[in-house]
Amino acid sequence: MAPKITTLLFDCDNTLVLSESLAFEACAELANEILASRDIPDRYTGPQLLSEFVGQNFRGMMVSLKAKYKYEMGDAELETYVTREEDAVIAKLKEKLQPCVGADAELEKLAKQGKYHLAVVSSSALRRVQASIEKVGQDKYFAREHVFSAATSLEKPTSKPDPAIYIHALKVLGKTPEECVAVEDSKSGATAAFRAKIKTIGYTGSYEPEEEEKMTKVLTDAGCVVVMKDWTEFDASLAKIESGEV
How far apart are CA 88 and CA 2, in angstroms? Predict the structure, then answer.
């Protein structure tokens, strides 16, 4: 018999809100500044950065860029850029952010049912996640202490695919992996949930139509037990997990 599902854990960026393209615009400007300061000729656009580092937070991106281009960056300089990135991204989000199509209706329905505990589990900085869900009015569905950030909530900041933020969320919520379901849109996020032994619904609705088929395979390979391309499919996807079908 399948364990009773009590808790739903939602990724934020491009799962609940359409934030990634806005955020990566700001990230690209800072990444290019860093590369220029090291006399590295390469430059990124927002979409290029998104394609290469989707699902990672800015701190994780900076680690990846350092490894790729083999330059040094001390902790103090990194923290300065992390703060600047947060400020720049939040400004863009407050100006332009929209919810993912259908996410609001699903959250409202879940809140009315009152059947599940709802939480957000994100790689992004806590300030950014809070600003995002507040901008689109989703904050009313999540208790402030149930919004978790791999960049902020942990003693040692990290980023998905490290499962640490999911493990931390389970501990704070007092839940086991078996009674939770996660919803993720990226390989890194799905991998993090899988490593935390949480059954995961993949979501491809924030991708362009020509990318959906590829991302369905990416998310399945990363451990998602079912993949939906629209929030209207959430009930049926969750039912498959609750029935033990997947």
Answer: 44
- Could you read off the pLDDT of 150-179 as tens digits, one per residue? 999 999 999 999 999 999 999 999 999 999
Evaluate whether 181 touches 241 at the Cβ level (below 8 Å).
yes
The count of other CB atoms within 10 Å of the CB of residue 18 is: 21
Distance CA 106, CA 112 (A): 10
Please check whether residue 35 is in contact with residue 121, taking contact to mean a CB–CB distance below 8 angstroms. no
% of the chain surpassing 90 pLDDT: 90
- Name the H helices within the chain: 20-37, 46-53, 58-69, 75-96, 103-113, 126-135, 164-173, 187-195, 209-221, 234-242
Pick from 37, 39, 63, 14: nearest CA to 185: 14
pLDDT category of residue 57 using cuts at 50, 70 and 90: confident
Q: Which two tokens stand for residue 142?
A: 């999540």
DSSP string, 216-240: HHHHHHTT-SEEESSGGGHHHHHHH
Q: What span, in angstroms and rounded, lies between the C-alpha atoms of 34 and 117?
A: 41
Over residues 167-194, the mean pLDDT reads: 98
Cα 203 to Cα 57, 94, 101, 137: the distances in Å are 19, 24, 12, 21
Q: Check if the beta carbon of residue 46 is closer than 8 Å to that of residue 24.
A: yes
**Closest to 55 measured CA to CA, from 23, 82, 87:** 23
Q: What is the pTM of this model?
A: 0.89
Q: What is the pLDDT of residues 1-22, one digit of tens each?
A: 677 999 999 999 999 999 988 9
